Amino acid sequence: MAAAHNRQWRVARYPQPGEAVSEELFNWTTAAVPQPAANEFLVRTLCLAPGPAQRGYLQDAGSEAFLQPVAIGDVMRGRGVGQIIASRHPDYPEGGIFVGSLGWQDYSIQQPRGKEFVFSTRLIEQPLLPLSSELTLLGQAGATAWFGLHDAAGLQAGDHVLISAAAGGVGSSAGQIARLMGAAKVVGLAGTAEKCAWLVNTLGFDAAINYRRDDLAARVTELFPHGIDVFFDNVGGEILNTALGHLAMRARVAICGFIATDYDPDAACGPINYRNLVSRRARMQGFVFFDYWERYAEAQSELRGWYRDGLLHNTEHVIDGLEAMPTALAGLFTGGNRGVAVCRVAPDPEL
Length: 351
Ligand SMILES: NC(=O)c1ccc[n+]([C@@H]2O[C@H](COP(=O)([O-])OP(=O)(O)OC[C@H]3O[C@@H](n4cnc5c(N)ncnc54)[C@H](OP(=O)(O)O)[C@@H]3O)[C@@H](O)[C@H]2O)c1
Prior knowledge:
This protein is an alpha/beta fold. The chain has helices at 140-152, 169-180, 193-201, 216-223, 237-244, 276-279, 296-308, 325-331; strands at residues 5-11, 26-32, 41-49, 79-87, 97-101, 107-110, 122-123, 160-163, 185-190, 207-210, 228-233, 247-255, 283-286, 316-320, 340-344. Strands 3, 4, 5, 6, 7, 14 and 15 form a 7-stranded mixed beta sheet that branches. Strand 9 (185-190), helix 3 and strand 10 form a beta-alpha-beta unit. It is globular. The chain binds NADP nicotinamide-adenine-dinucleotide phosphate.
């Protein structure tokens, strides 16, 4: 049964420097369910994916802003999967499953976007269940891991790979994909013993290091006696510095994110062990998944095939209810999720 109103989270204010995300930054409002005009369609939200980048929408746009902010008073932006429930566009029929920027709300009006939005806006031709997998392995997390490993990391069969935030959305996908690409060893970093056990026992990592409890440098030395060939980094800060101190010859460091220092106003110095890039003839490269939209079909075809064949575990961490979105976003910065955080707004329909 569809909700009669459109429940929404609107941005109330931006956080102060160093302030954590919390419900106080948003207002919970209701509005009438909108109706599509010509060439538009109405989408009912089924699930939403809070992502660390959404914290970046909550700040004034400086001249160097990488992420477009959400204006105060507007509905918070966010990716989701929904079902088209009314349509005035011939290519987007009622009943279709749609992935797009649905916002933190029950209903949104959508229209087609250019093909450069293929990651974030698409009609799913052959949806796989659960539909939230379109936000996890088959969506941004899987694609980021796939392109990061292929391109920025140049992963080769036989490589010894270290992944930070390995129990997060991108990291848990990257570990599984690295193994399928032929990595000889895959080690993950995570912040609890339970997450470490999950990486090894469920996702098939060779080993996991609890970076909060273990002596990180000692464990890396033990697990990588010949050095790290590929470091896939989601965290930055001291973890990046430690990994740079243990590189193998011609190692590749793929910089996916830096969640440890993202919004830390005091994080002003760089990793001194970058000097190892010279002696190890190594390279360090950042990448952004949406630069790869022209090759998206390539990643999708492989990821969907692996998922259909049962070779990839759908690592989603389900949170119930649209009401929980601010808490779900806040939890990403305190290690609350295991796999991709997904907020369930309404049940999957029968397909
Ligand atoms: N380059 C791109 O195109 C791209 C695309 C998507 C995401 N990203 C970036 O990649 C990173 C991971 O994204 P995601 O979606 O996988 O995130 P996620 O699912 O939210 O995972 C985040 C995990 O990071 C760990 N973490 C948080 N704070 C930490 C800290 N101070 N030190 C060490 N670990 C910490 C936590 O796990 P523990 O409990 O293990 O600490 C947390 O569960 C983010 O920085 C994100 O912005 C980049």
